[in-house]
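User: Predict the structure for this protein chain, please.
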Amino acid sequence: MGFARTCSVALVGVEGVVVEVQAGLEPGIAAFTLVGLPDKSLAESRDRVRAAVVNSGAAWPQKKLTVGLSPASIPKAGSGFDLAVACAVLAAAELIDPREIADLVMIGELGLDGRVRPVRGVLPAVLAAADAGYRQVVVAEQTAAEASLVPDVSVLGVRSLRQLIAVLTDAPVPEEDPPEEGRPDPMLAGLSLAGTGIGAGVFCGAGGGGHVPDMAEVAGQHLARRALEIAAAGGHHLYLKGPPGAGKTMLAERLPGLLPPLTPQEALEVTAVHSVAGVLPPGKPLVNTPPYCAPHHSATMASLVGGGTGLPRPGAVSLAHRGLLFLDFSDHPLRVRVTR
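Assistant: Here is the predicted structure, written as structure tokens:
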């Protein structure tokens, strides 16, 4: 009987739990059984992994295969276990040395052609692995910079399962086409969306490029400007009331410019939340400026407070952590909440 194990991470909110991925081969009718409380997307990894392994040039073992995710009492969701499952199966079939993957943490989704795709929540997952004592992680190349934010952890970014097999077997690493840019499994697209469901009617910015509204652009409004400065300095909530056109929204949009940059610890906290939501700005793995979230008046309760089945997703309140939650409803006076 062939046996091998490696590790991945299950997310519970914005916290990670290291999961041991075990693969066992035994004589019998060829079958693939996945146990350990997988959700629907994880249960479908059986077909994704099999196709990815075959299309990567490796032989799929024609034996009874059982893959267990331990601890079995924790629900597992998402496709981020694909890479660990594939390597555990190959090691159980002795196509990879089981010792090479025993101390690795692998996080990534596999395409049917063997490409490794990014997933949400890489930063909190790597933080959990580091807290558990693991010092080597394998992720998709697109999220390698995000994973590298965790100190004292060696990160390997790969484009395909074929590349990872070559690294683990000391074979020449094949060239692969550069991966496509973009967010992994985005919950929000950084736009004000109309409709229903999680993410509807929410605008959230986190350290992106472009023009940042500045208080220096405001003429007059000395009393209101003083109120904003006090709110920013003390982390107070702010209530603005006045007729339409008085400048309430204009002033609130410039409040983030008065806040100081995030400390390294605060930046990791904010980045972890935005990583789980899948809204990290492309090419900017670390959010080091206070986020600014402005729900539209049609935003649903789920988009404000978060939620969902399987892996709960952060809402506007969570996405504004260490920054500003801007509530501007037509039927009510404007409220700005500094969430630092």
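Residues 202-338 form a domain with the Rossmann fold fold (CATH 3.40.50.300).
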